[in-house]
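Workshop exercise sheet. Pairs work together: one partner reads the sequence aloud, the other fills in the structure field after running the prediction. Swap roles for the next sheet.
Pair: D.N. / O.F.
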Amino acid sequence: MRQKIIRNFYCGDLRDENVDNEVCLSGWVQTRRDLGGLIFVDLRDRSGIIQVVFSPEHTEAFKKADEIRSEYVIAVRGRVSKRPEENVNPKIPTGSIEVLGEEVNILSKAKTPPFPIEDNIKVDESLRLKYRYLDLRRPKMQYNMIFRSKINKAIRDFLDENGFLEIETPILTKSTPEGARDYLVPSRLNPGEFYALPQSPQLFKQILMVAGMERYYQIARCFRDEDLRADRQPEFTQLDMEMSFVDVENVITLNEKLIKYVIEKITGRNVEIPFTRITYSKAMDKYGSDKPDTRFGMEMIDISNIVDNCEFKVFSHAVKSGGRVKCINIKKGGEIFSRRQIDELTEKAKEFGAKGLAWMNITSKEIKSPIAKFFTEETLDRIIYRANGKIGDLIIFIADSNSELVMTSLGNMRVYLAKTLNLIDKDKLNFLWVTEFPLLEYSEEEKRYVAKHHPFTSPMEEDIPLLDKSPSKVRAKAYDIILNGTELGGGSIRIHDASLQEKMFQALGFSEERAKSNFGFLLQAFEYGTPPHGGIAYGLDRMMMLLLGLESIRDCIAFPKTQNASCLMTEAPGDVDLKQLKELNIEVKI
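Structure field:
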């Protein structure tokens, strides 16, 4: 009876100091090469690759090795040996050694995979997702999963050291339709009623503060039925945190230490704290975004008060209508962009929502621009001075009676130009806090104010009187953490005063009945002594994507969904039996 080979080393862990050791290895066959007198097998497991050599002197092993093909699962017993100098492979950590195979067992045979199990393959993503179990064998994907696991462990280590309790909250909960669309789950035991999958553990973590847990966290699965993008999935993972007896400063300071600890421990990259902070209004004014990328300059400049009475009606009318005129100085842009390319920039601005794009090219002789004739020399000088214009620069302008449109469209142009001109240092990690978000925003669709974050976000104390007369001017004790132009997470200090919470519901247009219907259990809990509390939630998938330098969030999730929220591997969502629907008292009409 053949003796079972029990692994005692990982393939990628072997080094020169293991020479002459007898080792037992298991894994997948990367490649097999028959060079006449010898058979070479590259054996792969999660740790890496080792070369195994089979020679005719071990007759049974050599014969068995002749049957081996790519992706077979095998177990090998052999002795580690130094490679001949001419055969050393410096590209892999095990490249100076090999294993002389003395015994081999084929544990599982494999069909030819639909794509090579190696990095940098040119294959459609849909094929990779259909055969995800093969895609996950590739070294890059395995590295991503290992990296993710290490990040999660480092997070737990830090929070444990800082007095946090890891507590799970329910997956089957109540629908609270304020925010994204819920995924609904029908109840068999309660016909006609539904659970909702949690968009976040928000209400439960506040309940935990009422319960006296004081410091809670959870690496939580969350669900939102919304349109997908490269950095969004229907089910995703949050690092969710909540703390009692804290203010904004406490939350921000602790989270800066958390980020520094985790990134330095796992990646070795230095993270300087404290991070830069900027208010929401300044972020929009300078960058046209509430998640600005600060790895490059090209900040927006407001020239509204210079052109409010100029002869160029596009500018002056925009200002007099309550709007703004803003510009960006593209350094040496006049030497980079041809007239045709400037016209292309105008079309790009229109794609971002602007009605058009004006421009001025500063040359040594004059200001070249179709609109220069509408300005006095003094006004031109003031524009150039404010924009810090120099010879060779190209200044672009967007004007509109809608100030928000000016900021967002020019903000998008800023990022587009930075990518086009290769101004972004991809090795940088630029963290930024954006604070003092608007508490409320007006929904034209619902004809009422809605919460910018959620209905339990606390307003700034000095702005509370504005809730009645100017709700749009109320600032929130809310904060987002931004990394390289992407929102990593967001949070706020919560309302813990019952009368203020009632005032907030009134501003949102909630009747007392609706408030109780949606949030009754939380409001009832608040009647039994509520500590001041606040927290934050991170999108862990986005964090992994950015730290790994990936283009798509799907490459750091083991089993992601496609753009239409389907799983190509399991073919979910799918049909269910009529019997199952009857048990749930559901009839499907399409």
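Discussion prompt: The first helix runs from residue 59 to 65. What would you look at next?
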